[in-house]
Amino acid sequence: PWSRDVTANRIHTLSEKTVSVLAGLARPVEVTAFVKSGDTAREDLEPLLRRFAAAGSNLTFRIVDPEQHPEIADQLGVHQVGTIVARAGEARASIALETLGAQSEGALASLVLKVSRQGPGIVYSLTGHGEPSVYPLTDTGDPIIAETYLAAVMSLTGDLSFAASALQLGTPAP
Fold this sequence. Notes:
Distance between the termini: 64 Å
Shape: elongated
Order of helices and strands: HEHEHEEHEHE
Oligomer: single chain
Radius of gyration: 21 Å
Largest sheet: 4 strands, mixed
Structural class: alpha/beta
Strand order of the largest sheet: 2-1-3-4
Number of helices: 5
């Protein structure tokens, strides 16, 4: 059906970045939200998921009441009402509905992007122009290897969907 967002802040329109992510999905992504029937959160979530599906031909969604369909929750390893799961092939990621808040579009787009990627993203630390090191030193004064340091930071933040690597941009300064 045809619709038009006439709100002043275009609150019913996806951002260009989200539309780009959804339109560029190279493989099918299924989003499953586990929300009880009659829960008011469903009223906000369903229109957002409809906009996502309309923007990306490789995205499908379903909203499941886990009390009526516990087998689906079990199949996806969901043990809590209010969980949103995205799957693409063997890749699977989830977030709690309560964490979406005002940033629901961005959080949901990140979830979809996380499972749609082929392999991990890469976080680079740039070197080679004489810039000071961003890496701490060991007790002996030796720099910690970039990959090890970045991997440790990412494991502390809980985001293990990235690989870490140093990127030499030029010749080292004398």
